[in-house]
Amino acid sequence: HGWRFHALAMLLTTAAWVARYGMLVVVVMAVVPDLDVRLFVLREVAMMVTSFATPIPGSAGGAEALYAVFLGPLLHPPSMVAPTMLVWRFLNFYIFLPLGLYLTWRGVKR
Description:
By secondary structure, this protein is mainly α. It has helices at 3-29, 37-51, 62-70, 81-94, 96-109. Helix 1 (3-29) packs antiparallel against helix 4 (81-94).
């Protein structure tokens, strides 16, 4: 493969990670417009890195607890913690489970 292949792979990987981190910022800013974005992103990165250490696939349960600990204090009113967490987890994780199930079923069917 030439350099264009690797450059495209690097560009797409960067876009995927920016989208992954940016999604949560957008979800939270929809309900907390005066969010300190720099502090939020730093805590989000720390939360994501910590979630890699949870032994459960997809960090189910662990990610939610880490969200409340790392990002909860930045959300005002505090009642926004659960709704923003649920939207984020749905868009970032749970939506891909039925999609993967469908694609797997379709692939096995062929």
